[in-house]
Design brief:
- The protein is an all-alpha fold and about 80 residues long.
- It has a domain of about 50 residues.
- The chain is built from 5 helices and no strands.
Length: about 80
Amino acid sequence: MDKARESMRKLCEGMDVLTLEEKERCLSFAEAINAIEGLTISTELEQQLKKWKNGEITFYQVFESILKRYGFSNMRSKIDTQ
């Protein structure tokens, strides 16, 4: 596994072992922050987060998908310089 992917996985550590209640609180908090910022999440992301909450996919899968969607799929140079 390359350094960038390993670093992204480390950012996601622990998210998949949260209880359903903890995941719901995380999602509620994220929705509140987005509302404060005046942002809405895409239907695609909402569906992915629901799958994560229900244990159907990993948080890393959600994270990686969103990074790719917004053009941050090549994180190697950013992470290697830190």
